[in-house]
């Protein structure tokens, strides 16, 4: 069987363990589904076997596309860059899941794109670098807790399912991997300005060792009385999603007072 050569610039590490591939496929039970980066189809084959899953695969690597078209002619396959595709154009109506053995070098970008379509993506699952998986699923007070944790947990319940060792890939990565599942929670909208929320989370964690009053001073203005609120004495990793919402509302109100 012809092999696809792993390309370093695409962050390719092909999964060779069929048991792991099947377990990843089983993180989804049904529904319209996009698989990102199917490679040589190790995960694809199990998704295609599930009659409850309506699968479309997106692959950027021409060598992989040729391989998949030869070995999986029944697969609905799109050659393109997931990060550049308009998913509303690709799937005009209804919900769709996202799954994949995600390229480690763009996994964060993939999850930010999932957030852009959060009202249409009920479940996103797959394999990523273990360190990133821990970050996604981390809770306040933990070292791994950061920007991705807060922004994704605002809209998704995140499960760290299992760890995957390096030796089940070709070529083996230098790090361990993990499989996660993100399930859309009941929070349709945040009770605050969502654009400002995102700005506050990113600004706070970009100076994560500083108290909020120092890192967020630029957003409210030096000497603003709102900075005396207790929450501004805390560091970002101490705050839950709900507390970041409250913080956003405080800043939002203070900005309105300044304008008026």
Structure notes:
There is one protein chain. The chain folds into two domains: 177 residues, Rossmann fold, CATH 3.40.50.150; 66 residues, rRNA adenine dimethylase, C-terminal domain (Helicase, Ruva Protein, domain 3, Orthogonal Bundle). Helix content is 36%, strand content 19%. The protein has eleven helices and nine strands. It has a seven-stranded mixed β-sheet. A two-stranded antiparallel ribbon has the order 1-8. Helix 2 links the parallel strand 2 and strand 3. It starts with 13 loop residues before the first strand and ends with a helix.
Which features does this protein show?
260 residues; alpha/beta; Rossmann fold; Helicase, Ruva Protein, domain 3; 11 helices; 36% helix
Quickly describe the structure.
With 260 residues, this protein is of the alpha/beta class. It has helices at 18-25, 44-49, 62-71, 87-90, 107-116, 130-137, 147-153, 194-206, 212-215, 217-220, 241-259; strands at 14-15, 31-36, 53-59, 76-79, 97-101, 123-129, 156-164, 169-170, 177-184. It has 2 domains: 8-184, Vaccinia Virus protein VP39 (Rossmann fold); 194-259, rRNA adenine dimethylase, C-terminal domain (Helicase, Ruva Protein, domain 3).
